[in-house]
Amino acid sequence: MINMGDILNTLKNTEYEISLSEFSSKYEVEDYEVFDEELNKWVNYTESCYRKHISGGFPDIETTPAPIVLIAMHNKATDKTIVFGTKSINQTGDFEFRTYKDENTMLRSFVTYWADYYPDIVSGWNSDQFDFPYIINRIFKILGDDWVKKLSPFGIVREKMVEIRGREIQTYDIYGVTQLDYLDLYKKFGTYSAKESYALGFIAQEEIGETKREAPCESFKEWYDDYYDSFVDYNAHDARLVHRIDNKMKLIDLAVSVAYLAKINFKEVFSPVRTWDVLIYNHLSAKKIAIPPHKKKLASAFEGAYVKDPVLKMYGWGMSFDFASLYPTIIRQWNLSPETLVKDQMEPIDVDTMVNCNQGLSKYAHENDLTIAANGSLYRKDKKGILPEMMEMMMVGRKVAKKEMLKLEQQYQEVKNELSRRGTGV
After folding, report:
1. Helix (H) or strand (E) holding 237
2. Fewer beta carbons under 10 A from the terminal one: N or C of the chain?
3. Are 99 and 110 in contact (CB under 8 A)?
4. Which of 198, 222, 249 is the last residue of a domain?
5. Domain range for 153
6. Same domain, 240 and 335
7. Is the pTM of this model over 0.85?
């Protein structure tokens, strides 16, 4: 799903048209959903506000038929919001506005500004799937490959196709500059439950009590043509919203911390498999333990977690329990790890047999100092497994960090109170 509201803000719609038949053949529009910011919900494209506001569709990121007329960004290093535009404005807000005679000049200035700072990390709301590929393709189209290469401190920008919902989407790797889409960061680290909407305005309202600017008219075309000052402020405000959300949630800092902890690239924090793969490798390497070579196996089904069969009847009051760090605790308690598994001692088991240590598999486990899981698998207890060892290391480290955080917060509050008592503030 694509947030069309953010996509269309920087494009001059009068210079781009695509027929619905062309759009349908390219995107299978009857199956395509977009977030309609007027209705505040996901709808089929043909039913959305964008179908009536735009002449047939939105610009293709690969062919980039529409010129870029405005780019808004917030530079965290200088704590300034910069807007590059191709029309002058009468009044600026709390941002710096730079105006240019045409798109060519604006893009040259943008690339030069980028190269002056060479950010380590760049982010935006759904920026990986639209903003960055569209800007890069447009720079290539207007200025040429040499200007695209200037976006990288190493002069290397590589195209990469990724599959999303069965469709291939064009993206780019800018060597030396990590792209962390803030929408992806929010879905990965920022929320534990599905949201009604992932539109920037909706999430900003939930997290920081702010939302996007109200449109003074029905279409973006009219907004751009007749209310340009407001249009510029709208885009500058969007850039600040992402910055303010991160100021509160610190998700970029969290991603960087996870990457340094696991010794992986920043972009790889989205993959728990990659993160734990490298964590385990480095942990074993430090213990001078070599991991067996990877063997390709045919995909096959495997039994999942134990689920107790319910007793069907009418119940009175019920309770729901939420255990902190349940899976890591289970792994530590039963010493679950590949090298502690007793492979040749497995048979079906029920709960009654499991808790009764005087018969069957439970008796065997008790006599041989083994743990027994609900599926009947047995694990050694004489040697701590690699996974329980790492879980314990992570959980203890988390408690130490949390304790230190509370200590620092208390010290910070004491300093604030003392400065307030002196009348100097903070």
Report:
1. helix 228-249
2. C
3. no
4. 249
5. 4-249
6. no
7. no
